[in-house]
Amino acid sequence: MFTHHPLLIQYLQMMQRSFDCAVQIEAIHGAPAVCWNAGRPSKAPFNAAEFESALNAIYSRNIGYFPTFTNHLVNENDLADPIANTILQSIARRPDLNGVIVTSELLSKYVSDRFPALRQIASVTKVTYEHGAGNVGYYRELGRRFHRFVVDPDDSRNPQLMDQLDRQKTEIMVNENCVADCPSRAHHYDTYARWQKAPDSVERQIVREEVNSIVANCHSPFRLNRQGEHRRSCNLAPAELKAIYAMGFRHFKLQGRADDPYSFAYDLVRFTCEPEFVSPLMFKSICSWLERVLARIHN
User: Fold this and answer.
1) Closest to 11 (Cα-Cα) out of 259, 21, 50
2) Cβ neighbours of residue 180 closer than 8 Å, sequence gap 6 or more
3) Would residue 177 count as lying in a domain?
4) Phi, psi values for residue 92, rounded to 5°
5) Is the pLDDT of residue 218 over 90?
6) pLDDT-derived band of residue 217, with 50, 70 and 90 as boundaries?
7) Which residue range(s) make up the domain with 158?
8) Which residues are CB-contacts of 32 (< 8 A; sequence separation ≥ 6)?
9) Using CA atoms, how far apart are residues 19 and 250, in angstroms rounded to an integer?
10) Of 14, 71, 117, 124, whose Cβ has the fewest other Cβ atoms within 10 Å?
11) Is this prediction's pTM over 0.70?
């Protein structure tokens, strides 16, 4: 939402029209440029009319919306953010479809007090920020308190740990681009959270430079480590995803709101439709559609 939802809707229409297939998507996530957002920085503006139109478009396909209100630095003053509260009030009219992704306990309580029917998902940033990775007891406590929780990307490749988690409570991110066992993940999330809350352009630029420095020096999966070996990303390989599915897990999540539309489209089709014939065909179709859209914008 606020970045790729037109592409998603176009994809769903193409799949329905070409293959009579209703792709099973429970909800989409994302947020405009509000201080409650985190996980990824957002520059997306908010337009109330366009937001309601987008909601109606996904509601018509029985898809909900979970805003990424995952900033762990939210304070009491931030709770009055007018745009974030407008979004809450809007999605609270459809608690059967919608919910909120949270990290902050303060914000979680605020949402619960105002709109108790809205489901809450504990964000992967919460797991990272609270050092819960690898801790089965921690995940079980999140499962007791939240509708679901997003498991740490490194833990999703640990079958012994995964086998101890509640299948109905666990949500698995399948295409996290961060390098496996990334030492900078918590620092990334913290810097993004600070950037989203930066009150003026000067402070925001300072934090932006820090973000760029972190990314430039991160242990990218496309680089060699000191031993000259390639390090993998947290993207799940097909065999890994099939193994997790065979264990009974059914809640999977695609990241991508900060990706360019072509990267997002690639992950969308490769994880949601048949890989040999349909996936490459749909990716080509989506790319052609994107080219036409961009041409109209430039003209």
Assistant:
1) 21
2) 153, 154, 157, 221, 231, 232, 233, 234
3) yes
4) -65, -15
5) no
6) low
7) 5-294
8) 2, 42, 44, 45, 46, 83, 87
9) 23
10) 117
11) yes
